[in-house]
Design goal:
Strand 13 (259-263), helix 12 and strand 14 form a beta-alpha-beta unit. The N and C termini lie far apart (67 Å). The chain folds into 2 domains: 2-255 and 462-485, Aldehyde Dehydrogenase, Chain A, domain 1; 259-450, Aldehyde Dehydrogenase, Chain A, domain 2. Helix 3 packs antiparallel against helix 6 and helix 6 runs parallel beside helix 8 (157-170). 38% of the residues lie in helices and 22% in strands. The protein has a 7-stranded mixed β-sheet, sandwiched between helices. A 6-stranded mixed β-sheet has the order 10-9-8-11-12-22, sandwiched between helices. It has 486 residues and is of the alpha/beta class. The longest helix is centred in the N-terminal third of the chain and has 17 residues, at 63-79. Bound molecules: nicotinamide-adenine-dinucleotide. Nicotinamide-adenine-dinucleotide binds at residues 151-155, 160, 178, 180-181, 210-212, 216-217, 220, 231-233, 236, 239-240, 254-257, 288, 390, 392, 418, 458, 462-463.
Length: 486
């Protein structure tokens, strides 16, 4: 059985209280290992180590040296690819097929993606006239922000964590990571990689634990944390923002969504079906950018519902290591209880269940896992809770529409604003509708196509701030104006 310890100041350690919690695999509920739960002493030690490291060899490194070291981290993740893959799939139950081409390679790439932005992004400079005629020169200078708390979720554990750690370190900060209690493994493994690559002690720290009254809340409330970057539920984002208000610390919040997909009758239907199969069901529907509301123009509505149903019938559920498997379990029994409560609610709210709606029989070996059926509904009212609340499971509701104006209003009728997907072959319509979407990210005739240089984040209750490319640079550095009287 494995032991997942904290990684503080370059060393692995258990909690002084010896308190641990279980880490179970959602595929069959077997016990993977015990995880140390941090208390205030561990959080204090990690933040102190991160603070001290800002002044040590890390602080003295040139930008080029830091970037070289982070390139090495990316390479080392790739060298230990199979261990990362194994760890991620045990924690989440997701198929190797997915994690081996999304989670792990993109997780490693996050350590390389920001070096070019850093090297090529200029700061501003202004010459100011002064009464003596000699003038003054202003120029912007970027410094690291300091100690960054990284609080991350379980759905893409390595990828979403390194999406923050990569640019934070590239900018010269130090980090204390609090991975999700459901998925402690890859953040821990990354500690080993940091050691192997010679990243100075205290630059990358990990504390394990839960949110409220545990490591998450202790970390976000710590006065020596200079900024907090968080991905997770909107309600958690609010709690973190309240903590960050003390001391006026900066936050970047990437939160929940209830993302629409708008399918026009002039779309390429094959592409729209293939894209919606991915956006609604990949990673067992546990993708923040995924689609839970599908609006289909009436002339193709019946055909779309039928074809999406046929697509779901083809999905193969099974063990992560089976290369023919498309679909794993949910991350935990706790999360399955939540998703199943929405499956129940959908029936109470009057949905027609097109397919799914329950728990599949996976056979004796897997029946203790957190398995769930991919599900499609039609027939719900626009004010149904199932149509308005984020479920974060493999399910979507499909509703017909009759006009562009109507579907724009329907799509925007939500507290969230993370992503939207538009399927049409009419490019004028695509631009018009994309611009009307109240969302941080809009895809046209694609989904989850990510260029790491672009802005990533949500509108409305889906978040605050943007990360990616220069936007990460804005968050992870403090810009100071230097004014020189000539
Ligand atoms: P969550 O909010 O429950 O937990 C996320 C992290 O916050 C975990 O590490 C957790 O321990 C910690 N946490 C919980 N309460 C806390 C508190 N009071 N103070 C400090 N830390 C606390 O989210 P989750 O269930 O792990 O992830 C699913 C959610 O994440 C969904 O809502 C999904 O949409 C969202 N998500 C958003 C994005 C995005 O980029 N916008 C990406 C992935 C997931």
């Amino acid at each position: 059985m494995k032991q997942f310890n904290h990684f503080i100041n370059g060393e692995f350690s258990a909690s002084s209280s010896q308190v641990v919690f279980e880490n179970r695999c959602p595929v069959d509920n077997h016990l993977i290992g015990q995880v140390a739960e941090a208390g205030q002493p561990e959080v204090n030690a990690a933040v102190a180590a991160a603070k001290a490291a800002l002044l040590g060899p890390w602080g003295d490194m040139t930008q080029a040296q830091r970037i070289q070291l982070l390139d090495r981290v990316a390479e080392r993740i790739n060298e230990r690819f199979d261990e990362f893959l194994q760890a991620e799939c045990l924690d989440t139950g997701k198929p190797h097929k997915i994690a081996s081409h999304i989670d792990i390679p993109r997780g490693a790439a996050n350590f390389k993606a920001f070096s070019e932005t850093l090297a090529n992004h200029p700061t501003e400079s202004f010459k100011l006239d002064t009464p003596d005629g000699k003038g003054a020169l202003n120029y912007g200078h970027r410094s690291p922000k300091g100690v960054i708390a990284v609080i991350s979720p379980w759905n893409l554990p390595l990828l979403l964590m390194t999406w923050k750690v990569g640019p934070a370190l590239a900018c010269g900060n130090t980090v204390v990571v609090k991975p999700s209690e459901e998925t402690p493994a890859t953040a821990t493994l990354l500690g080993e990689v940091m050691q192997e690559c010679g990243v100075p002690a205290g630059v990358y720290n990990v504390v394990h634990g839960f949110g409220p009254n545990s490591a998450g809340a202790m970390l976000s409330g710590h006065p020596d944390v200079d900024a907090i970057t968080f991905t997770g539920e909107t309600r958690t984002g609010e709690a973190i923002m309240r903590s960050a208000a003390v001391g006026l610390r900066n936050v970047s919040l990437e939160c929940g969504g209830k993302n629409p997909s708008l399918v026009f009758a002039d779309c390429d239907l094959d592409k729209a079906i293939e894209g919606t199969m991915r956006s609604a069901f990949v990673n067992c529907g546990q993708v923040c950018l995924g689609t839970e509301r599908v609006y289909v123009e009436r002339p193709i509505f019946e055909q779309f519902v039928q074809r999406l149903k046929e697509g779901v019938e083809q999905l193969k559920l099974g063990r992560p290591e089976d290369p023919s498997v498309d679909f794993g379990p949910l991350v935990s029994h706790k999360h399955r209880d939540k998703v199943l409560s929405y499956y129940q609610l959908a029936k109470q709210e009057g949905a027609t269940v097109v397919i799914g709606g329950g728990v599949p029989d996976m056979g004796a070996e897997l029946n203790d896992g957190a398995w769930i059926e991919p599900t499609i509904w039609t027939g719900l009212n626009d004010d149904a809770r199932v149509v308005n609340e984020e479920i974060f499971g493999p399910c979507c509701h499909i509703r017909p529409f009759d006009s562009e104006t109507e579907v724009i209003a329907l799509a925007n009728n939500t507290r969230y604003g993370l992503s939207a997907t538009i399927w049409t072959e009419n490019s004028s319509r695509a631009c018009r509708v994309a611009e009307a979407m109240e969302a941080g990210i809009v895809w046209v005739n694609s989904w989850f196509l990510r260029d790491l240089r672009t802005a990533f984040g949500g509108a409305k209750e889906s978040g605050i701030g943007r990360e990616g490319g220069v936007h990460s640079l804005e968050f992870y550095t403090e810009i100071k104006n230097i004014c020189i009287k000539l």
